[in-house]
Amino acid sequence: MNLANKITLARIFLVPVILFFLLIRFDLGTVRFEDFELTYTQIIAALIFIIAASTDGLDGYLARKNKMVTNLGKLLDPLADKLLVAAVLISLVQMDKLSAFIAIVIISREFAVTGLRQVALLEGAVLAASTWGKWKTGIQIAMIIALLLNNFPFALVDIRMDIILSWAAALITIWSGIDYFVKNRNLIPVE
């Protein structure tokens, strides 16, 4: 169990902590600016999400830099990413902050690309993250943060960045999924 794998495990263990602050009803107070309102539990959940999301790049960087890439890490890292994003997306749907359609599109793409990666591994190939995949991740994280923070600070100037980011995330997610499958169509058995 090296440092990179410990960081990945920490990301997995942060998922239920985020869900606790998002879904368990208790009052720590509210921040108000004119018509804008944000609970402290939302702020805490958003901060923990930001920390967890930032560990994604950190664990991979440390594993490659220190030549600590392991099979456990190859398994846990994408699992941790999927758990974090899927759990928060489902919570946002439960909280009526995100359309179920967008959550289903994003989660379905993750399952599909994970399946393609598994097929690639069976063929002895590794699918590296594409540029579109990296954009997808960045937009999804920005969308989740905007939704967790009730569109702060954009709500103060009447810009619905949460909605813009939600649809941008859905579209880029679809496009990046298509991109993976088109570029790796040779791995898909057609019989």
Number of strands: 2
> Which strand-content bin applies to the residues?
under 5%
Distance between the termini: 42 Å
- Indicate the mean pLDDT: 89
- Strand order across the largest sheet: 1-2
The CATH topology is given as Four Helix Bundle (Hemerythrin (Met), subunit A)
Query: What characteristic shape results from the CA principal axes?
Result: globular
Description:
Its main location: membrane. It is an enzyme of class 2 (transferase). One of its GO terms (molecular function) is CDP-diacylglycerol-glycerol-3-phosphate 3-phosphatidyltransferase activity. The structure is a single chain. The chain has 191 residues and is mainly alpha-helical. It is built from 6 helices and 2 strands. The protein has one domain (3-187): Four Helix Bundle (Hemerythrin (Met), subunit A). A two-stranded antiparallel ribbon has the order 1-2. The longest helix has 26 residues, at 40-65. It is globular and about 60 Å long. The N and C termini lie far apart (42 Å).
